Structure prediction request, 458 residues.
Amino acid sequence: MKIRVIGGGLAGPEAALTAARLGCEVDLYEMRAVIDGQPRLTPAHQTTEFGELVCSNSLKSESPYTAPWLLKQEMRRAGSALLRIADETVVPAGHALAVDRVAFSRRIAAAIEAEPRIRVFREEVTRLDDTTGPNEDGAENIVRCTIVATGPLTSAALSREIERLTGSGHLAFYDSISPIVEAETIDMDRVYFAARWDKGTADYINCPMDRAEYDRFYDALVAAEAAESKDWEHLEYFEGCLPIEVLARRGRDTLRFGPMKPVGLRDPRTGKTPWAVVQLRKENLRADSYNLVGFQNHLKFGEQARVLRMIPGLENAHFLRYGQIHRNTYLCAPALLHETLFLKNSAARLAFAGQLSGVEGYTESIATGLLAGIYAAAMAHGEELRPIPRATALGSLVHYITHAEVKRFQPANITFDLLEPLEEETRKKIRDKKERHKLQCERALTAFDAWLAAARLS
Prediction:
């Protein structure tokens, strides 16, 4: 019943501790190590500790009936080891769950050391299709499955191995994210629906600019302050996916011939073609959020809010997500992964968790590690793998990464946008958004408890 877990960040230790708790022997591999008194680190890490928080120390909101709160409630009910440690190492942070990052890492290491079913190997793994591992006496032991949770800085050698097993083109090495705005905060009196050249249905919201509006927007954009890049990111932009501020610096009219091209987008209210247009595209069938097409950028969030609210119709916009471009190795999960997080069409029993699987955020990474550990333990025991219900927060997150449109797939955090909507009759009856979210949370927790009971995990 041997399980191999690769990666000592957040998802890996969570998967290892979960599988061990469910009766499995686990070999946990981490390439960061101290060799001859010198630490061997990745460009992002500062220690060799498990669960090192590289950026923020926050695991997001604890406000009741928010999407991050719901995900953490599900994780607590399933016995998440790292979330329990986070609760034990909490520091004051308003409505957020923030931790003492040093104490957090040390408690994780202590939990792993105290678990007799886990053995730690401080070495790099470069092959994934081998199915044996060492016993204490040196004899070989069958590895039933492997969980890969090596994160956004997966080593070059292991990245090549993943590409070999999944096929080229299924591993991304950077993240390009356009801002997303809440539909209810768009001033619909200032925008119009249209398809370019009136071909097809008018699914895009178009924010028209005259020449003066465009010039003001352009000047603000090129003067906006960029987000700081860490030395280890070495951002190398792809020509086909340049940050909008980089594109703008090539010339005042560059945007008008690129993402803000107005050609074929006549304003039906005036019969004229605007000087420039910002297009908004639906994020989901419910049309409760839209992304700004082609507006990936590397500006500070505050600067994005200031500049993007200069776009007609977005003066009072609430941004659900700001644009980002940063290094992030991740799988094209909808093309490669089952809902159980195991690789499709592969003889090797490989599961993926954490940011490598296509989720974003500390909590989301831990959650997928928890789920991978549960599924791997079931597989090792010869039990049926019971996919987590779509109605739950964790189920919705996994459903997104395994069912998103392949060509447009981008990693995601947990939001209500991913959860199943309430029935139309209920939505019409209950207008208050907070009340609707409360009902979604209650429904999710009921479904989660039923899944735990059926899987004998509660």
